[in-house]
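This follows on from our talk about sequence and fold. Go ahead and set the record down below:
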Amino acid sequence: AGFYTVQVWPGLRLVSLNMNFCSQANFWLLINSTDPAGQLQWLVGVLAAAEQAGEKVHIIGHIPPAHCLRSWSWNYYHIVNRFEGTIAAQFFGHTHVDEFEMFYDEETLTRPVSVAFVAPSVTTYINLNPGYRVYEVDGAYPGSSHAVLDHETFILNLTEANVPGAEPRWQRLYRAREAYGLPSAFPADWDQLLRRFQDDERLFQRFWFLFHKGHPPREPCLAACKAALLCALRTGRSADPSLCQPLRPALPFPRIQALWQQRRLC
């Protein structure tokens, strides 16, 4: 599989990345994990040309950047920082759950510059309802930001669908801005949501429910689980404990990484 770019319409360009070139499960990357096939160098060229042409860019891929090998992930983080004014949105999957990853300026790690949306899976793996997401994006008009304005997640409730005589029915689980009380869906809003999660336990548990597409595990997400999940949401690059230092509750980073490995489905 390769990687490519295409102009969706004037002012908006799509870039599709081959995330096999960053996968922690790809042993061929032992040969070159920095920039296999020169994909990141190619990405820089595409973004530079888009910047020069006044285009906005949507990036799509399978594996979220924080789940990639460290060298690739950190280089990608550099690129997002450099082209924060050109990259209008990032879309990934892979984890099967409903989440996001934050990107911050590299100087202070406090100013949100981008968010990678991680959509839930249609597959049930593991012990989940099927789900999919629909994004609302700023439209095609001169000067459009092409940014994500909101998104909706739909699920097929398997418990209801398996009742004798029932018909499978897709239903809207939630709309992001409505569910979380977001004034908009820009990176600063998702950063503020993370801050609210720390003190608003009811809001966090709502996220935990939606994170699992309406079918959370029986074991509740308490202090250690919460610390690990908030850290994951704030981490757009792999193996960086500094991104999680501002968060409460505090937890040693090795312990957080161990909890991440327990919950990862892929």
Remarks:
- The helical segments are 39-53, 70-82, 158-161, 176-180, 187-199, 201-211, 223-233, 253-263.
